[in-house]
């Protein structure tokens, strides 16, 4: 069984700052980390590896510095790692990114067919949740999103049973492999790396692939293949209104509610008339 986990190196969102003049993200001095949502998918892939003996390949697209994130994944127990890096990938939006990653996955499948692709629910920098489903669509894989638990994996019948969180509760889904899965945050606990895996990660010779090597079309990656553009990033202006302390005659719920209503009607003189008119009309 072959599992591919797509991860992304992102700036630590807790330390991101916006330039006050250019309104762009200031990445200087901001540490890079593995996208937190990707870690839950990586852990679930490693659990399947422990259970059924799968091979886990970690894949990322980014600059050469993304090597650090791949080595971190290897130290946690992944078997192989591929860095998809090329200047022609620069500026890729989610459409171009899913195409580039799909090309790399298809290249990996030439060596060993891919049964499951894991992706994070979304990234903390782009926050679109589009790349995983985009990969599934391009590969023709069944897509299982917002998964909270993998109940069963039957290699003989090539079937998987999962729990998916939805607005109405929890759905239990069963489908055939191959498939693409995005795990929901908080669904598992990320393991600590073993010393042997840490040493292996440090010595591992990363596979670095370019656009030409994967066979991706130049017109479909980078800015050329990106129909969407982020025109501006900005910090919302602070609101000028200040909080108002409302004085009530007493501390009972009725007294507090009456004081709040009096303050609302005082600030919105027409509101009382509108409510009376709606009540008279039976609305």
TrEMBL record:
Keywords: Electron transport, Transport
Domain Electron transfer flavoprotein alpha/beta-subunit N-terminal: 22-218
Keyword Transmembrane on entry: no
Matches recorded under PROSITE patterns: ETF_BETA
InterPro entries tied to this protein: ET-Flavoprotein_bsu_CS, ETF_a/b_N, ETF_b, ETF_beta_N, Rossmann-like_a/b/a_fold
A Pfam short name: ETF
GO molecular function: electron transfer activity
Quaternary structure, from the entry: FixA and FixB form a heterodimer.
Functional summary from the UniProt entry: May play a role in a redox process involved in nitrogen fixation.
Family: Belongs to the ETF beta-subunit/FixA family.
PANTHER family reported in the protein's UniProt record: ELECTRON TRANSFER FLAVOPROTEIN BETA-SUBUNIT, PROTEIN FIXA
Name of this protein: Protein FixA
């Amino acid at each position: 069984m072959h599992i591919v986990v797509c991860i992304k190196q992102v700036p630590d969102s807790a330390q991101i700052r916006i330039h006050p003049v250019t309104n762009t993200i200031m990445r200087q001095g901001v540490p890079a980390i593995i996208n937190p949502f990707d870690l839950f998918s990586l852990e679930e892939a490693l659990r399947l590896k422990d259970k059924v003996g799968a091979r886990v390949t970690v894949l990322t697209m980014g600059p050469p510095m993304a090597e650090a994130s791949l080595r971190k994944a290897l130290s946690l127990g992944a078997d192989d790692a591929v860095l998809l890096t090329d200047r022609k990938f620069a500026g890729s939006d989610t459409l171009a990114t899913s195409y580039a990653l799909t090309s790399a996955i298809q290249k990996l499948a030439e060596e060993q067919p891919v049964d499951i692709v894991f992706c994070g629910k979304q990234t903390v920098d782009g926050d679109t949740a589009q790349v995983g489903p985009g990969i599934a669509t391009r590969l023709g894989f069944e897509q299982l999103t917002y998964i909270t638990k993998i109940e069963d994996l039957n290699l003989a019948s090539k079937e998987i049973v999962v729990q998916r969180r939805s607005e109405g509760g929890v759905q239990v889904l069963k489908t055939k492999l191959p498939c693409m899965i995005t795990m929901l945050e908080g669904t598992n606990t990320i393991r600590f790396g073993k010393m042997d895996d840490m040493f292996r990660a440090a010595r591992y010779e990363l596979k670095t692939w370019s656009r030409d090597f994967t066979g991706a079309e130049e017109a479909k990656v980078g800015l050329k293949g990106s129909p969407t553009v982020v025109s501006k990033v900005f910090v919302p202006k602070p609101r000028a209104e200040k909080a108002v302390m409302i004085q009530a005659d007493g501390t009972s719920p009725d007294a507090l509610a009456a004081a709040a209503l009096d303050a609302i009607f005082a600030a919105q003189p027409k509101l009382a008339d509108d409510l009376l008119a709606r009540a008279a009309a039976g609305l």
